[in-house]
Amino acid sequence: MQLNIKYFGLIAEITTCTEETLELSNATIADLKNVLIGKYPELNTKDFQIAQNKEIVSNETLISGEELALLPPFSGG
Amino acid sequence: MNRYSRHIILSDIGQQGQDKLSKAKVLVVGAGGLGCPVLQYLTAAGIGNLGIIDFDIVEESNLQRQVLFGTSSLGMNKAIAAKKRLEDLNPTISIDAISEKLTTENALQLFKQYDIVVDGSDNFATRYLVNDAAILCNKPFVYGAIYKFEGQVSVFNYNKGPGYRCLFPNPPKEGSVANCSEVGVLSVLPGIIGTMMANEVIKIILGFEHVLSGKLLCYNSKTADISTLKVNRNQSEFDKVLGKEKLLGIYENESCEVLVKDISEEELATINNIQFIDVREPHEQPKLEIKNCMEIPLGHLESNLQLLDSDKTKVVFCQSGIRSKKAVELLMKQGFNDTFNFKGGVFPLVEALKQNIYER
User: In angstroms, what separates the C-alpha of B331 from chain A's closest C-alpha?
Assistant: First the structure.
């Protein structure tokens, strides 16, 4: 399945793009995290949440949607 | 009343709605980039009782975005300077300026006096504290946070909706996410995000239907993209907070302070046997291209103490001197007393190194 992944904030600086597509099938959110950490090792040191089809999901969630987003916490005010 | 006539003629507000606004009590945590626009609009809109808590002082670098302040506010406490300007904007409301830091000691008794809390803070310790205290006092809180050109807005702990911990359960390691003073921020961004926050406060008070609860709005000022993501309530994140007898800080050693020793460029030249420690993230530039420089991001410092050379004088630096100060605090608490903070950040250090005097 082709996934469209969006990156926010500091995460987009690490991936050096705000959006990309990735091919991944029968996977959970945790599997996706591992694939992305393999591609961008620096992600391993960062905190972020993942949204699938515009809903924040947990590690165990099966990937069923095509639209994913990596969201880091912001501290600035 | 003429002041609020444009509100009163709106059929969704009317005199009844304006009376609700004038009876409301709102506490704004932080009178910085986000707090300024929140305070300006809530004051102008006639929120009857406003509390402002901020321990910080107005600095010149704040004026690029914190438009409540002017040159005459420099050096003043932010809560007091804000009150002074806001009283001119609307003398008919009551404003309480609290020139203190929000702590686990004062948060609960303060939150209890208000209906709604606004989180305009600039660090995770305060953000988690606002969440936890709001849960314990059962108050909704309006959240906003910014990073460079991007912002997030949501309403937490509202009508059985989610809390901040439902979105980000684990506090990031201390220093792992930079704030505006370290990485910069577009001047208008906090104005946009803060105004959205003020809008949510007003919606809550007026009892409007579509409060931004259970949703996180993400805005990118470069692309003008807005994404709204659904956030579900996770009861266990509430139980975590409710199950404790009192408020706890997220960073266990945040309260015990140590004296950080700063070192200047001139003083550096007088020391032999230096180990430089770069506590920035790997992608940050410029790098120090010398042998005696160790790169350990602040978030990893504590687990890599074995890389430090106890025989050498350790000089810690980052981009602007803020993370390096935290790193020196951490190292000193771990017993590395021969450790200094290079206050000016990487750029003056690179300049000084061009003279080739520190590589010994």
Answer: 20
